Every structure is written in C-alpha cells, then in structure tokens.
Amino acid sequence: MLGSVLDEIGCMSGWTALDMGSGPCSMVACLTERIGDGRVFAVDLYTGVMDSLKKALSDDLLLKVVLIKADLRRLDFLRDDFVDLVTAYDTLSVVEQVTPGGTPYVLNEVRRILKPGSWFVAIEHWPVETIKAMDKAEAVEVRWWRVHMEIAKALGETTGVEYTTDSLKKTLTSAGFIVSHWKELESGDVEPGEKFIPYIVEKTKRIPNKVIREKVLTEMKSIEEDGKKHGMRRFPRYVFYAKNPTHGVLKKLKPLPFRDLYRTTHLGFV
To answer: For residue 265, what pLDDT is reported?
Structure first.
C-alpha cells in the first residue's frame, strides 16, 4: 500500500524526508528503500520507535535514518526549506489527542521545513464507526483504535480527530497548502499484531472508575491475544497529496510556552 502511495511522487533518490509520528516505522522503511543516498528523519514522542526500526530495517538501511524524540509542534532542530518530503501516516488524527490545539502549529512547522513546491503526504483512516471489518484481522485493528478512544474518554482527555476527506482538505487548505488530490487506499495485508506500548498501559491504569478500568484492561489483553492469533490488517484509508506553495506566508501563531513543550516530551513515552 505505502509503495503505491509513494509511486505518485516519482523519483526520490537523494532526497531528505521527514516522517511525522513514525510509530511502527512502516513508512520509514518504505522511504529508506527509495531515497538512495538520502536521509530520513523519523520524529516521534515514543523512543520505543528504535525497536520498531531495528525490526523493520537492515543495518544498511538503518544508517539512513535519524531518529529524534520531539514535539511535532516545534521542529526547530531543522532549518527552513530543508526537506524534500514530509509524510504523516495516521498522525494528524492523533495530534489533537496528545497536544490539544496543536494542529495549526504542526502544519505550520511542516510548511516551514518543506522546500517550496515540495510534497506533504498525509494518510488517514476513515472514521472508525464507519468501518465494517472484512475479516478477523481487520476487526482486531478496529478494536485497537476503539480502545484508545475509550481510554482517552475515561480519563476526560481529548480523543483526537477522525477526519473525513472534506474536513482534512479544509484543514490543509487553511494551513496554506495547495491540495493536489486525494485517493482511497485498500485494506492492507495481514501483519503481526501489536502490543500496547507501556505508556498506554500506564494511562489505562490511571482510569479512576475501577469497573471501566478493568473492562478496558481486559479488552486490551483480548486484542493482543487475538492479534497473535489472527494478525492485524490495516483497514481502509485515504491519502492526501498537498504542495507547499512557492511563495506562501506562514501563519502567525501565538508562541508555545517552553514549559508546555517540555511537559509534552516528558509524558512517559519511553
């Protein structure tokens, strides 16, 4: 699936790319195979991404990756007009959960570091409630997403944003991108099930309502067991292709307090 997404970009040999919220690193792995002697920056709050990288990449490909733990709202370790491509795979929908109100800042940073006329490629899932699982492997992923939403709700947190194609286009356009087109993606292949990262487990244990807490922990254990048994299939998604304007002006946003940025990067994503 990701190969076909990047095919539309064309030759990327020698490029510098940045993947936002790299997670299981499937996009990073795909990028490293296409950039030749280029470089991929993998940016995430979760340092466990390194384990995912080691599993996904050979030693030679791993040398092309720079892993950075950072808040996506502030990427000032990269200069303006530095990268040729920015990718976001199921990342924008999570931004508002981790950093409420952060989407304008994240997209401003994407535009700042992107070279004029370069691509921003954003993949998002369809709203979970609209998904009808095609098999048991896809049902595992649907449950995986739902339980994350249940945890946030039980803790009184923002649950993130489930974009439709109309709302994502509006968000990108408002940020100053020129949206080229979007296309629907098919369900992915069956992959090994994922374990919930320690940070999510610890969050769940902080749910004050004991009944809800035990119910969610039981569901998480069941999801992991079913993931081992059936695997996990990525349910249908869609991808947007947007360009950074050649002569675009960045939005003027209120500066983020350093204390806020520090708190975010020390949330326990280890």
So the answer is: 65
